[in-house]
Write a structure and sequence with these properties.
By secondary structure, the protein is of the alpha+beta class. The chain has 14 helices and 17 strands. Helix 5 runs antiparallel to helix 6 and helix 9 crosses helix 10 (220-228). The radius of gyration is 22 Å and the shape is globular. The two termini are 29 Å apart.
């Protein structure tokens, strides 16, 4: 028989002519999932990653007969470990490895990894560490590294999406080397052509870090200085008065193998003006997440307030159509894969404007994509962890 090899999902190699029974046996083996967790960037992003990774991988309803969940953790010093669990004690006693040694250990596994579930939210984790997995030939459940690199820059994201017909707020980018030395002068130049209120934010940060809503002219210089503390590139853009929501699309595969982009129900945030970091995660005075070893989700739960959101969001039908169209266009324009999520403002006239893309999801019960899937009709996407395991099988 022809001995050429065929690469099946999960990097398992079978010779051409393999019997149907042998192929079926291979396809019914456990799917081996490697949760990639941590951050080489900061303790905040490390703790955030562990928090979401634990709430995903430790969920009681996961099908552990069909899926084997393992962990690779990247520490703030760049060292790796493969702990047996994600509690603080297990992380502390796990053997630390250099990156080359860790990659060799992944490649040398007797039963190869089928899919990497990334939980790294820092820029390095969203880009370089995903690329490492891709170069090892392992499928990553999420957008590819080059897409995340682009989407990590809010200015570039908006330029690309706008060219594809996605409405975005009018704005411009400023660089620290050209505009950061004298923020008072930069503010005067901006105000000569733009009127407050304005939004000022770092171009390459998440969780509303460094974000300001500038209501009066005299506050602009301070907002510029604040944003430049977090990034050398910052955005100044018009403030869209109105409502704020999140919109997600999910790639759903049918029995024929065709994939459709399904727009999920939306979530609306009931705000006085904008979402800040305090609306998203609870921290102490030093900025450390309020999560504990016994309750890793505490920082998420404490940030939620009764009545601060509506899900599914209640918009007029024509607004839903505009939001769905925005999300599908952005998904295609950015080259997203599996899913994508967008922060959107809706003007008082009912027209949406994309604020930024959010191309990360841990598929924990606290993840936005999971929460939105729970509001769909039927049982294809709910209850949790149905969406997660559907995408892992794909």
């Amino acid at each position: 028989q022809d001995s050429h090899q065929v690469l099946l999902p999960g990097r398992r190699l079978l010779a051409r002519g393999t019997s149907a029974s042998a192929m079926a046996a291979t396809q019914t083996e456990q799917v081996r999932v490697l949760h990639l967790i941590g951050s080489p960037t900061s303790a905040f992003y490390f703790d955030l990653s562990v928090m979401y990774g634990r709430t995903s991988a430790e969920h009681a309803s996961l099908d552990r007969s069909a899926f084997r969940h393992e962990y690779a953790v990247v520490f703030t010093d760049g060292k790796w470990a493969f702990p047996s669990a994600l509690d603080p004690e297990s992380l502390q006693r796990a053997e630390r490895l250099s990156m080359p040694a860790a990659l060799m250990a992944i490649e040398a596994k007797e039963t190869p990894v089928d899919v990497v579930m990334p939980h790294m939210f820092c820029m390095e984790g969203m880009t370089r560490y995903r690329a490492l997995c891709e170069m090892l030939g392992i499928e990553v459940l999420g957008c590819p590294a080059h897409t995340c690199t682009l989407a990590n820059d809010k200015f570039l994201t908006k330029q690309l999406c706008q060219s594809a017909g996605v409405p975005v707020p009018e704005g411009e980018m400023f660089r620290a080397d050209m505009h950061g030395a004298d923020v008072e002068e930069t503010a005067r130049q901006i105000l000569a052509r733009r009127a407050t209120p304005l939004i000022v934010k770092p171009a390459r940060e998440d969780n509303s870090i460094g974000l300001s809503l500038v209501r009066t002219d005299e506050k602009l210089a301070a907002a510029l200085a604040k944003a430049f503390q977090y990034d050398d590139h910052i955005l100044v853009e018009e403030y869209i008065a109105g409502r704020e929501c999140r919109v997600a699309v999910l790639e759903v595969e049918d029995e024929s193998g065709s994939v459709r982009l399904e727009a999920l129900p939306k979530i609306e945030y009931l705000l006085e003006d904008i979402r800040t970091a305090s609306h998203k995660l609870a921290t102490n005075d030093q900025g450390k997440l309020l999560s504990t070893g016994d309750n890793p989700a505490e920082a998420i739960l404490k940030a939620k307030k009764e009545g601060d959101r509506v899900c599914p969001a209640q918009f007029p039908p024509e607004v839903h159509v505009r939001l769905d169209d925005l999300a599908r266009k952005a998904h295609r324009a950015l080259g997203c894969k599996y899913y994508s999520l967008y922060d959107v403002r809706i003007s008082k006239e009912g027209f949406p404007f994309m604020l930024e893309s959010c191309l990360f999801c841990s598929f924990s019960p606290y993840s936005v994509v999971v929460a939105l899937a729970e509001k769909t009709d039927g049982e294809q996407l709910r209850p949790h962890p149905r969406v997660f395991e559907m995408l892992l099988r794909r």
